[in-house]
Amino acid sequence: MPKKGKKSKTGISNKKVKQSKSKDKKKSGLTKRKLPSLKKQQMKDDKQFTEKKSYPLSKLFPEGGRILLTGKGKDFVERLGLEATRHAILCVLCGENIRSQTEPLSRRRLAQVSGAIIAMFTQGCLTVKDFQENLSTYAVDQIENLKGKANLWPAQWVIGLNDKLMQNILRSDSKQLKAYVKEFDKAIKEAAKHCEEHYGNYNMALGYMKDETGQQVTLDWEGIARITTAIGAQTLAIRGSDKSMYGKLFERLILGSILTVLGYKRVEPTKNKLTHGVFWLSDSSANRECDATLLVAPGQLVRFDMGFIGKGNPEITKDKMSRFGNIKEAVEEGEQAYNSVTFIVIDTLKETVKTVEAKKKADAEIIQMSMQFWPYQIAEKLDARFGIKHEILKIPPDNLKAYMKERLDEVDVSEFLNEVTLEEITNLDADIEPEDENILHDDGEE
């Protein structure tokens, strides 16, 4: 007879216990194979901190907040709100300024990340002994030992830093970090003392209204100063990254949406076997030729290049047209003959002699997003080039917005961001100060 597994004190055989644990792991999704990438990284981070006997702020920072910093583009849009994103796309398709559409998204992102900071502080004070007193030490340990924006940014914020300030104040030298923190802690204590003397002895209560343990965190002026400093630092960091991030995100969202509304099907170029009426979106690599490619028919290609460029930057538009002029010449010199054209989609364009010459050389079509219902112009230009009669050309001008909204409501716009992450599409190491922005001004000038 086969040997039975030894029974434990609970009366369950060891063999059954092992099987039960295995099943529990499968049910909970905690097997190594099924762990999401962010979870894997966090476990690795926790192990490093355990070895250093320090507490990881990354563990306290909520997962929902991490997604807003480095998650997939699709997760990011769904977190902000799919309907809000779709509404922003529709407004841009109708000729409205993209900045007026992305600003509410930025404010929503700022509010949600601020909430994640408050949750991090609350959990830290509830679960970690002397959390506030050791907060700067935890931040320095995390900055020195971990990588990835979801780990670095929250640690920077609690000591009043962001990437730009790390470059300017510390000259990107981590050796100066501890000296900076010593002065930072001193400044926080002095500010807290000043507030108490001049404004009164106020406290801030954080916690759960119906927590079973009844625990609640009470922050004095020093704690208040630390949490507001962190929220202020994250505001600068988020604002700095949003310009680049929204530009890259909305290039894919808008191009994917308009081509889908016009009746084309999105495919993966490496797997595509269709030869008519399909398009694909380019990746975020630096050597990409364009932002989207439309395969009208065999040998008939349309390259789309999008840039939210105002009148004050005609040289950028000229560079785009010059680049596509070189591509056109290279194609014409090849063995195969292609009927290809470039559609350059920009916010506004101030025509100059140079831009006119570049347009002629590139044989490009220029579409300005500041024009009302500019997708209609794309359909007209496709008709002129390839003889394609799109349905949108039959819609009366007064009904165009309702038509595009109806078609857009059928599109899962988040699918256009499946392959991208926020870190891939954003140069987060170079925070852009608001006064440095020189595009998308309402008057089109710098």
List keywords for this structure.
single chain, 446 residues, alpha/beta, Trna Endonuclease, Chain: A, domain 1, 2 domains, two-stranded antiparallel ribbon, 17 helices, disordered C terminus
Low-confidence stretches: 2-36, 48-53, 321-335, 427-446
Listing every helix as H and every strand as E from the N terminus to the C terminus, the arrangement reads HHHHHHHHHHHEEHEEEEHEHEHHH
Number of domains: 2
Helix tally equals: 17
> If you compute it from the alpha carbons, what radius of gyration comes out, rounded to the nearest whole angstrom?
27 Å
Query: What is the number of E strands?
Result: 8
Task: Give the termini distance in whole angstroms.
Answer: 88 Å
Shape label: elongated
Structural class: alpha/beta
Helix content estimate: 40-55%
Indicate the proportion of strand residues: 5-15%
> Largest sheet, described in full?
6 strands, mixed
- Biggest sheet: strands side by side, in what order? 3-4-5-6-7-8
Mean pLDDT reading = 77
